[in-house]
Amino acid sequence: MFFDVLKGKKPSVLGFCIGAVVGLVAITPAAGYVGIPQSIFIGMVAAIISNQAVYYKSKSTLDDTLDVFPCHGLGGIVGMLLTGIFASKTINPAGSDGLLYGNPAFFFIQLKAMLIVVVYSFTISYLIFKLINIIQPIRVSSEKEEIGLDRSQHDEKYGSTLPVLVKV
Fold it and tell me: How far apart are CA 64 and CA 61, in angstroms?
């Protein structure tokens, strides 16, 4: 929401809610391993990165209407990596200290885990989408898209039962 204001846009409840979700996604990997100040920092960093990713995605041709990857994907990645930096045995004696507390090995474990998750998720998702596309094409034709998906896919006709207001 604050970034929208800085960009000259009006603050919105949607911007606030998206920021809250990104913060929650980012702190999830670190929950129980970092303190409150670190969790606030993790949420803020994730929000900044997510907001920038949404901005650059809007300038591209990528089709992610709900901004799932910039919010959930990047929020989780940021949370995983920053857990490796801010984790503390003071918060959780059964856990590990992170990079900031003298344990760079834990940060590299988090980095390796993040890379494995990204590669695995991308590969499996790609294969699933390819299989679905063979069975039932995912993309509609440009003609059906031009007509509108509500009408071409769901046979919904808006406005047909609404009275027409005529200006006199």
Answer: 9
Give 2-48 pLDDT, tens digit per residue: 878 888 888 888 888 889 999 999 999 999 999 999 999 999 999 99
At which residue do the structure tokens 């949370």 appear? Answer: 79
Q: Does 163 reside within a domain? A: no
- State whether residue 151 is helix, strand or coil: helix
- In the structure encoding, which two tokens stand for residue 161, read together? 């039962």
- Which has the closest alpha carbon to 96: 152, 33, 51, 42? 33
Segments forming the whole domain that contains residue 61: 2-115
Tell me if 167 is assigned to some domain: no
* Residue at 154 is within a domain: no
**Total tally of structural domains belonging to the chain:** 1
- Provide the CB-side half-sphere exposure for 62 (13 A, CA): 14
